[in-house]
């Protein structure tokens, strides 16, 4: 069974940091583009950051540029999202996804709560 499992969410004070992980299983994701999305209550899911199969290719939402860093370790079949200088508006459920040849996989999400 192909799965993506996120971890690392939690409660953090504004200005703090969290590192999210997205572990893939069931097949290798090294050829996939991978991304982190988030969805806050009452809002649409939005792209936060994406990384190509070549790790040097990354893309960020303007709201997180300079604060968040996406990376991947293909040997571990895992993608990461390092989140620094967190703001209350970053609070959401964070989802990772992987896309390859038109097939998209989603994880179940991990909650990030930022207290002011």
Q: What is the topological layout?
A:
Elements: E1 3-7, E2 10-13, E3 18-25, E4 33-39, E5 46-51, E6 58-60, E7 68-73, E8 78-83, E9 92-100, E10 103-106, E11 110-115
Parallel strand pairs: 2-11
Antiparallel strand pairs: 1-3, 3-8, 4-5, 4-9, 5-6, 7-8, 9-10, 9-11
Characterization of this structure:
The chain has strands at 3-7, 10-13, 18-25, 33-39, 46-51, 58-60, 68-73, 78-83, 92-100, 103-106, 110-115. With 116 residues, the chain is mainly beta.
Looking at this protein, list some descriptive labels.
mainly beta; 116 residues; seven-stranded mixed beta sheet; 11 strands; globular; four-stranded antiparallel beta sheet
Summed up:
This protein is mainly β and 116 residues long. It has strands at residues 3-7, 10-13, 18-25, 33-39, 46-51, 58-60, 68-73, 78-83, 92-100, 103-106, 110-115.
List the uncertain runs. Answer: none
Main sheet characteristics: 7 strands, mixed
Order of helices and strands: EEEEEEEEEEE
Helix content: under 10%
**Residue-averaged pLDDT, rounded?**
95
* Spatial gap, N to C terminus: 40 Å
In terms of DSSP E residues, the strand content is over 45%
Give the number of helices. 0
- What is the gyration radius calculated from CA atoms? 13 Å
SS-based class: mainly beta
Number of strands: 11
Q: What is the molecular shape?
A: globular
